[in-house]
Amino acid sequence: MREAALGIEDDAGSWREPVRLGGLVRAGMQLYLRALRLRFQLWRRLRPGTSFSDYYAFRVQRKLAEGGVHPTLGRNRWSPGEFRWYGAGALAFLVSHGLERHHRCIEYGCGSLRVGQHLIRYLDAGRYTGLDVTDRFFLDGLDLLEPELQEQKRPRLALITSAGLAELGRHPADFLVSIEVLQHVEPRELDAFLASLLQLVGPETRAFVSFREWKQPLQTAEKSWSRPARELAERIARIAPGARLEVVRGEWVKRSWDPSRKSILCIQRPAAAAHGPSSGAEDAKGSNPCPSI
Ligand SMILES: C[S@@+](CC[C@H](N)C(=O)[O-])C[C@H]1O[C@@H](n2cnc3c(N)ncnc32)[C@H](O)[C@@H]1O
User: Which of 164, 205, 262, 285 could tie 250 with a disulfide, CB 3.0–4.6 Å?
Assistant: First the structure.
């Protein structure tokens, strides 16, 4: 692997080992998660051909239908006014990284438009596209947006399909964002997830993909995984040789069973890289796609 070209460091100096109790709690958590894994395997056995992302959507939808809460997909009782309070930080981050009103932006895994609502308001008409594996969440989100706004800005919302990805990939957007999604992708589906997402990244696209980072792969909840940036870099290098990567590291999650931090992977695929493997040395010389914030 060409680490220099990928620009990925492990940031070992700043890893925080969990507090002493954390080790025990995490061991117990891993046993619990193993039991939950059996539940998923049983669910899938009854529904041949489904994936973990189907299971994810099924579980969250059921939880919401039963009156449960989800931190990004709606608390069922959000009023339109309350909804506007959530997700604005992501827009500020993107604007500080060059997003302008006229840009075309695709959000991959847009959920209930927690972030999408701000992108829709900010971007010019027809410039926002939200994609997800289920329409349940974005239909909920649309219900919370003013009809005039929807009419004026004409957001495009669609299910993720291979035909849709191929079509969008033919006219890559200026920005691709995926927030709080990658952490919910089951390890065996990660390459397929990255390949789909990278299909939408053209030579001019700036992609920002949030993930939970820890120095080794770690499942932290039934539907959440943390991973080393290096692992993601290796996977991306195999799928999109020559892609340039940077990591912006954010805050620590701060739960005793979850030592990871919230990081963002910034991806660019220079034109040369889009046409086959390139020399790592050349890639390393380009401008930093994701200056620190
Ligand atoms: C935690 S929510 C985040 C939603 C939104 N990005 C936000 O920040 O509010 C995760 C979203 O990812 C979607 N998702 C889960 N697995 C996915 C996959 N393999 N590909 C694309 N989206 C996926 C879910 O349907 C859900 O809408």
Answer: 262
